[in-house]
Amino acid sequence: MANPHSDRPPLRLGILLSGRGSNFLAIAESIRCGRLAGVEIAIVISNVAGAAGLAAGRDLGMATALHISKGRSRDTHDADVLACLREHRVDLICLAGYMRLLSPAFVAAFPDRILNIHPSLLPAFPGLEAQEQAFAYGVKIAGCTVHFVDDELDHGAIILQRAIPVLESDDTHSLAERILAEEHIAYTEAVRMVASGEYEIRGRRFVKRNT
């Protein structure tokens, strides 16, 4: 079947990461294999010099940039990152383990065009170490959430979630690894849904349009 959106220019992604960037690599692999059509990675940006994900981007021949955040104000650092994203004509930003809160000015510059993935079924267990929080709480179902970014932590409209059972044999490490496997699936699917443009946000609800 022909792609009804094949005449559109590719949606250009800007990836922001601070560490190994496994979700970035999952998205890149989905693009390479054709599972995520009509999308390209325009730039990979890190705020940490030794980030493995930045090195992986270079190894894949992608444009990369380093904007170290340590010792700089959030507003100044974010202004530099925004300038880089605009220089590379980014349409949609994907946070892939970006351990930095975005300033309100940054979020306002890309309204409903910044995605984040969080390793819990929001609104449960926002913030750091969500998997450990869930395990310690004794939940029977865990998972991950892809959502738009707004001015509040782990708060924007939810695009999709994937759930897994917490097994009797799980510990915090095994649960985190199984959630991560779901993240790699969920992020690609969420980018595909947003790239289609066939949705609207009603209040906090991400609603797919009938096509």
What keyword list fits this structure?
single chain, 211 residues, alpha/beta, Rossmann fold, 2 domains, two-stranded antiparallel ribbon, 34% helix, 24% strand
Describe the structure.
The chain is α/β, with parallel strands linked by helices and 211 residues long. It folds into 2 domains: 1-110, Rossmann fold; 116-211, Formyl transferase, N-terminal domain (Rossmann fold), CATH 3.40.50. The chain is 34% helix and 24% strand. It is built from 6 helices and 9 strands, in the order βαβαβαβαβαββαββ. The chain has helices at residues 22-32, 52-59, 74-87, 104-109, 130-137, 172-196; strands at residues 11-17, 39-46, 64-66, 92-95, 114-118, 141-148, 158-165, 199-202, 205-208. The chain has a 7-stranded mixed sheet with strand order 3-2-1-4-5-6-7, with helices on both faces. A two-stranded antiparallel ribbon has the order 8-9. A hairpin with a 2-residue loop joins strand 8 and strand 9 (205-208). Helix 1 (22-32) crosses helix 6 and helix 5 packs across helix 6. The longest helix is centred in the C-terminal third of the chain and has 25 residues, at 172-196.
- N/C terminus separation: 15 Å
* Biggest sheet layout: 7 strands, mixed
CATH fold-level name of the largest domain: Rossmann fold
CATH class of the largest domain: Alpha Beta
Q: Do you know the CATH architecture of the largest domain?
A: 3-Layer(aba) Sandwich
Structural class: alpha/beta
Trace the largest sheet across and list its strands: 3-2-1-4-5-6-7
Strand proportion: 15-25%
Low-confidence stretches: none
